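Q: DM10 domain-containing protein, please. Structure only.
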Amino acid sequence: MAAPAHEAIPFLPGNTFRDVRKTDYRLPHSLGYKNGYPIQLVHLPTDLETPERLAETAGSDPWITYGDARYHEYEYTPGNGGWHGGKKMGVSSRFVPAHVAFDKVVLRFDAYFKQTVHESEEQYHLRRVRILYYVEDDSIAVVEPPVENSGIPQGVLIKRQKMPKSSTEFYTIRDFNLAVNLTFYGKTFRVVSCDRFTQRYMEETEHLRLNCPEPMPADPYQGDRSRPVRLPTNNTGKVDKLRMFLENDRKVLRFFCVWDDRESMFGELREFVLHYYLVDDCVEVREVRKPNNGRDPFPILLRRQQLPKVMETNANDRSKFYNWRDFRVGCVINVLGRRFLMRDCDDYTRRFYEDNLGVQTNEMRPIPLDIDDAKGPGEDETPPYNGFGSVEDSLGSCKYLVLKPPKKDFIKMLENEHKVLRFVAKMESKHKEDKDRRFVISYRLADDMMTIYEPP
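A: Structure for DM10 domain-containing protein:
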């Protein structure tokens, strides 16, 4: 291919020509940061821009990415086994930096270390970790996968950095293998296995023969914790409060009860709500408060406690206290000497009895009681008009202690001002002299007032 015309002219003053085809005069961005490290951006050739082509080139000889000048004088022939010795014939050498060739290439090794425990039954804790090796800059990170309910701070144990091997050396990929010990900052890690990508990379690219993988040992402390709790075989008669709390926490049965005390003097029919707490077999009784009942606001008749069947009961004898199996819709219970009738329950209580005791829904139907007629007052009767003022004034004296003027609809009065409906009527009477009498009935739309007038 012939050189361009402007390149053949001698480079002398006055013989330099500008490329008229150039349209972009911006300076390219050459510096940047990647993973917190300052790097120089490299513009790859056209044939190395694809990731597959770049990985194939970098994987053939990784030593070229570490800056050894003697490897830069060899050419790469695709399809013929990689790099070949000898000077290149008419082809300029290419150098691909490590941060480009090995970008996102991470090797993962599974390891563990033992943490000594002082003043405890167990001697050590076995903590499993993952060692991540970043090939692009030989940095290492140690991460511990979190274990639920371990009680130990877990996550990133050693952040990504170059790990010192001695005072003058750092760890490289050649120091890694299976079934070996690695010491990072005074802590010894035992490498037991790796993933398939790491194994293939170590054997094909680094040409290292890996040792046989070792099984990950079990942690005796985690084994003791995961062991199921052995339940006692003998029945001691004690209640397992922890089990009741875990199974029945926030589970409450609700019954609607009535107490009929109308046989006594000034007695009445009163409504109550009974709550039964399954977590500790306690009962709470609350009164249904109604407005204007004339009673002090003390809604709790019985605070949360175990309800005895008889007033004089031994506290250690649980059979003498009410249990949820003793309750049914329609049964009568004794609440501190008062006979309560359970007339209804909520939907959750019905489902609970159906699931645990097989009680059908028709057996838990509510009992109808005419409570409103038994206790509720009748409708208020409006007294007749007393003749003072208007009808609204007389009605206001019955509703309010302090009289208030009746409210008027001013919009209606403005819209219907001077609008009057007139009707002619005659009197129906058994007297003959009244049959020919005529009247005029006037209805005012502004204030709904009526006037009856008999013309002369």
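A: Brief note, in case it's useful. Residues 51-60 form the longest helix (10 residues).
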